[in-house]
Amino acid sequence: MSLLHRLAFAALLAGAAAASLAALPASAEDEPVSLRILAINDFHGNLKPPSAGIRVADPNDPTKSSVVPAGGAAQMASLVKLLTDGQPNTIFVAAGDLIGASPFLSAMFHDEPTIESMSQMGLALSAVGNHEFDEGKDELLRMQNGGCHPTDGCRGPKPFTGAKFHYLAASTFLKGTDKTVFPPYEIRTFEDIPVAFIGLTLKGTAGIISPASSAGLEFRNEAESVNALIPELKAKGVQAIVVLIHEGGWPSGGMNECPGLSGPIVDIVKDLDSAVDIVISGHTHQAYVCTIDKRLVTSADKFGTLVTAIDIKLDRTTRDVISTSATNIVVDATLPKDPTQTALIDAYEKLAAPIANRPAGVITQVLSRLPNAAGESVLGDVIADAQLAATSAPDKGGAVIAMTNPGGIRTDLARRDDGAVSFADVFASQPFRNQLMTVTLTGAEIRAALEQQWLDPARPRILQISRGFSYAFDAKQPAGARIDAATMTLNGKAIDPAASYRVTLNNYLALGGDGFTTFKSGREPIVGPYDDEALFAYLKANSPLAPPPRDRIVNKAQ
Description:
Blueprint lengths: L2 H20 L10 E8 L13 E5 L2 E8 L4 H12 L5 E5 L9 H4 L4 H10 L3 E3 L9 H9 L20 E3 L3 E3 L10 E6 L2 E9 L9 H4 L2 E3 L2 H6 L2 H6 L4 E7 L3 E2 L9 E2 L1 H8 L6 E3 L6 E6 L2 E6 L5 E9 L6 E10 L8 H18 L2 E4 L15 H14 L9 E4 L15 E3 H7 L5 E8 H9 L12 E2 L3 E5 L9 E8 L2 E2 L5 E7 H4 L12 E8 H11 L11 E3 L3
Parallel strand pairs: 1-4, 4-5, 5-6, 9-11, 11-14, 14-16, 20-27, 24-29
Antiparallel strand pairs: 1-17, 2-3, 7-10, 8-9, 12-13, 15-16, 17-18, 19-21, 20-23, 22-27, 22-28, 24-25, 25-26
Helix pairs in contact: 4-10, 11-15
């Protein structure tokens, strides 16, 4: 995956487009208009290349694959320029989650660096993703319009002026009104042909962000929101329509294949009005190029490792799309770094370094977030133990159990050669910076909360639990009977349904996040430290730290 390979591939794309045009009638009036759309999704503030890279197929043996370094805003900017050169009409768009759950470099500044990076890169439009709402509607409006953070003020190297690109939100309404938080669509014109871009997030957003962040908002059906706009767009003379949606699916093939795709995006696309030509998707952190219901559907992995190059042709007479093709292209780590992006990143790194580089401790092996068959991960166990340690003292909450949600654990704690872990590493694994809360729950309420792990039986959310607490489950049992109450123990003693226990949760869970509404019944709350600070302190106190055994949760079906 060298730069030469990427350059050669880009040249092939340009050559194919030129050859196609050469085969058309010579009259310019008869030639279709060519448009290249460059698309990304789920960037999540990864200004620097993510440590995991991306897995790609071996070009010499499709049955084999390997992980290659990829990503980084400086490299992505160079690729975007490369894919734009020689193209008469281009637009750069995104399908949401540009920000939120970000590494320390972006998150420390409330994702202002990422907004600036995307603006400098020439991003034009973006759908809103669920993570765009992590800090609430007003903070997202600040991302668009600029200004200092209401609590932390201005921390960056220069005043934050907001996004130069436009957020679109066709399905996100102010509750009780027909007013969307952002415009539902934007029309761009290419050689006198209008093309509409509709942006929207998934209707389930309220269930995967904190209740406080979704207050006052309503997330409506995706396809219905799009279809309601079609008559309005047609009245404006628009025939070519592109949907940017923060929802996706799970493929079974390579990054440019689609032998099988499952997930919400399939039914959403099938429900869209036939006037919609292209769907650019995201959310599931997958890569695919598909045809669903005779429409092109794409997704570009995550963390800025891919850019999707979509080439379409527009008929000058009908003004509609007459052909589409797409290719996901790796943001090769060997691409030259764009100097403007490099300067931006360097300026923020200089400000962040004193905090980011603080030593947390030493780990003997990678602390992986990968779950076993019971849904338990090494890093999840360590984080839960850290939260228990931070809140177990009587004056800190008196906790005897700690639980955390798996969705809040974003990346492994990787081991360097010397095993050293920094605060930036800790933050990357828990970038939401949730505050810990210790509450009182009965044994019966703890069991009821654990039952809510299967609100979506196809994709359960298994809570990570602290040392000393254990239980067994059988997912084949009916709802409400999956947790074996007889196996619920704390330090070897059976959990009493009527007894009270002090349980530490992050504030997201305590407010009923991820559908764990039982936790809202928690009583006598005591607010503790932030989750990243708890993990940082735990690593310092227990260094060198070895991975604990994953034996707290038992899957009876295994």
